[in-house]
Design goal:
Helices cover 40% and strands 20% of the residues. It is of the alpha/beta class. It has one domain: Divalent-metal-dependent TIM barrel enzymes (TIM Barrel, Alpha-Beta Barrel), CATH 3.20.20.150. The strands form 3 sheets. It has an 8-stranded parallel barrel, surrounded by 4 helices. The relative contact order is 0.15.
Length: 285
């Protein structure tokens, strides 16, 4: 099975959205790689795929899925995996990832990334499905931790232990979303640093950064929502620096999906991530 990150060095990239495609092609900004949502390119032609192939000529690519539903009890979608495999063959991405979640049941799609119960039964179920996907695609995939707002009373282990065990037992890699850790830590009251310390260093092949929004709940309480609609928060940058301290320089992606700013703003956020990577690498040397 191919290890997914061999062709991507530690650098910072941006999520390439359709609103920025033309500007990206025209300017070829100095970012290390681009990432797109796989499902947006399942069509076998058209302008989106045309622009992506042009961008791929100058930049390494990460394919990031939102529709695998690896934790669902529905059978894995063979048409979905077939099209994803075709896209991988066509574009030769450095990384292929999806989310440690479920998003469909009984053929009904929730259009959301829903958390799993962290139990031994769920763990065995996810591991078996990850192995099927990796055998089907003939390469290692990465799974990303998601933000969550509710927890299952049935859970018997913390999220970080569940994620680490999925990676260990299945052989998949981890896409560690630092913003999601920060959001979930606030919402559930755990220590974000404890999460980082529990994740095996060798499993982390990509890091995500993004912005969140605060929603008041009354009585001074608030919940954080992973909206990808704002700059990376200062506290998330601090947690990212701690992640670099633990995992070393790792390919890092800045996500921004709603209330999109100018392309230059995303490029600047990626440059900040790159500078933190270089600072950490310099300190280590």
């Amino acid at each position: 099975m191919e290890k997914s990150s061999e062709s991507l060095t530690a650098c910072a990239g941006i999520g390439l959205r359709s609103e920025h495609c033309a500007a990206f092609i025209a300017s070829r900004p100095p970012v290390g790689f681009i990432e797109v949502h796989s499902e947006n390119y399942f069509g076998r032609g058209g302008k989106p795929l045309h622009f992506l192939r042009l961008a791929r000529q100058s930049h390494a690519l990460s394919l990031h899925g939102v529709g695998l539903s690896i934790g669902s009890v529905d059978p894995l979608s063979q048409p979905y995996l077939a099209r994803l495999g075709e896209l991988i063959e066509m574009l030769e991405p450095a990384l292929v990832s999806d989310h440690l979640c479920w998003s469909s049941v009984g053929g009904i799609h929730a259009n959301d990334l829903l958390p799993l119960p962290f139990t031994e039964e769920a763990l065995s179920h996810v591991v078996a499905r990850v192995q099927q996907v990796q055998e089907r695609l003939r390469r290692r995939i990465l799974l990303e931790n998601v933000s969550s707002y509710l927890a299952y009373v049935q859970s018997t282990m913390p999220e970080w232990e569940f994620l680490a065990e999925v990676a260990r037992r299945s052989g998949c890699g981890i896409l560690l979303d630092v913003n999601n850790i920060f959001v979930s830590a606030h919402n559930h009251g755990f220590e974000a640093m404890h999460y980082l310390r529990a994740i095996p260093r060798q499993a982390v092949e990509e890091i995500h950064l993004a912005g969140f929004t605060r929603t008041p709940l009354g009585d001074g309480a608030e919940i954080l929502i992973d909206t990808h609609s704002a700059p990376v928060a200062d506290a998330v940058w601090t947690l990212y620096a701690a992640a670099l301290e633990r995992f070393g320089p790792v390919p890092t992606l800045v996500e921004w999906d709603a209330d999109l700013p100018a392309l230059s703003v995303l490029v600047a956020q990626a440059a900040k991530a790159e500078s933190l990577m270089e600072l950490r690498d310099g300190c280590a040397a």
